[in-house]
Amino acid sequence: LTHNGLKVKGDTGTITIPPETRITIGVDGTVSSVPINPQPNTVALVGRIKLVDPPQDKLVKGTDGLFRLKEGGEAQVDARVKLVEGTLEGSNVNVVHEMVSMIALARQFDMQMKMLENAQKNAQQASQIMVVRV
């Protein structure tokens, strides 16, 4: 299960990890388990993660944040896809750049609001001057 409680899909169905084991995952998605206790030299093949690479134009993002094929069904296994050990999926957003951009936009908004307030004051003063002269 993932940290969200979703089942991990394998080539032949859901992958289930036995209790009291340590797992290793190969670059081809092969999941192996090694017992923690009595005989740590025993390696058991648990399954193989289904590795796919569907075209981006055929994907749609669901309300749960997961991607699915537009026409439904499941993506086909792609032998060219490999896993990289010890890495985490990263964001495609530069946090520092976006924070600086957000601060700049907030300052720009404040300046525009002050300009509108000044324009409104000028318009009120101009209308008072015109009323006095009439």
Task: Give an overview of the whole structure.
With 134 residues, this protein is of the alpha+beta class. It folds into two domains: 9-69, no CATH class; 93-134. The protein is 29% helix and 19% strand. The strands form three sheets. A three-stranded antiparallel beta sheet has the order 3-4-5, with no helix packed on it. A two-stranded antiparallel ribbon has the order 1-2. Strand 1 (9-10) and strand 2 form a beta hairpin. The mean pLDDT is 85.
Describe this structure in a few short sentences.
The chain is an alpha+beta fold and 134 residues long. The chain has 2 domains: 9-69, no CATH class; 93-134.
The percent of residues in helical segments reads 25-40%
Order of the strands making up the biggest sheet: 3-4-5
How many independent structural domains? Answer: 2
| Tally of alpha and pi helices | 1
